[in-house]
Amino acid sequence: MFKESGRKWFEVQQLELLYYTRPDAEKLCSASMTNRRKALLLDRKGKVVATSCSSIFLHTTGGDAAMDKEQQEFQHVPVLLEECIRGLNIKPEGTYVDGTLGGAGHAARVAALLSGSGRLIGIDQDADAVAAAGQRLAPYHEHTVIVRSNYREIRGIMEELNISGVDGILLDLGVSSWQLDCAGRGFSYREDAMLDMRMDDRQEKTARDIVNCYSEQELYHVIRDYGEDAFAKNIAKHIVRARQDKPIETTFELNGIIQAAIPAKVRMAKGHPSKKTFQAIRIELNRELEVLRESLDIMIDLLNPNGRLCIITFHSLEDRIVKQNFRKNENPCTCPPNFPVCVCGKKPKGSQLTKKPVLPSEQECAKNSRAKSAKLRIFQKI
Question: What is the count of structural domains for the chain?
Answer without folding.
Answer: 3
